[in-house]
Amino acid sequence: MKHKTNAQKVQFLMTASPAGPLMQAFVLESIRRYADQVLADGMPEDNPRALISPTAWYCCAETARLELAAMKGAQL
User: Fold this and answer.
1) What is the greatest pairwise CA distance in the chain?
2) pLDDT 10s digit of each residue in the chain, 76 long?
């Protein structure tokens, strides 16, 4: 079995999942909820020993939340 990249896995979920379009709603809602959870904790202090910068992770959550909010606004 060929290794799939993360992008390929997400693309499959969004376009070819047996759950159909319901999976799209599930994936987007999951991203929104996790972004909200990260943002609720506030901007973290950077930790130079961390594998992933906490500030960069927080910024990813901000970007995801803003993009999802923009999509929602466009659908109204």
Assistant:
1) 44
2) 789 999 999 999 999 999 999 999 999 999 999 999 999 999 988 888 999 999 999 999 999 999 999 987 755 3
